[in-house]
Design goal:
The protein is an alpha+beta fold. The chain is built from 1 helix and 4 strands; from the N terminus they run E-E-H-E-E.
Length: about 50
């Protein structure tokens, strides 16, 4: 049986879409799926959900 790990990091950036994209792109590796990216400009936070 293969294990699947889910990770939900919160980063302290919710406005700079280029920086958010760079961080998300760094997680795009074989075996890892980006499930969601939810930036919040009001709180300047982004929640990224990934699994693999």
């Amino acid at each position: 049986m293969n294990a699947i790990v889910e990770c939900v990091p919160n980063i302290s950036e919710g406005r700079d879409t280029d920086l958010i994209g760079t961080i998300v792109d760094a997680a795009r590796i074989d075996g890892c799926s980006i499930l969601s990216v939810e930036p919040d400009a009001d709180y300047n936070r982004t929640v990224i959900t990934l699994a693999g």
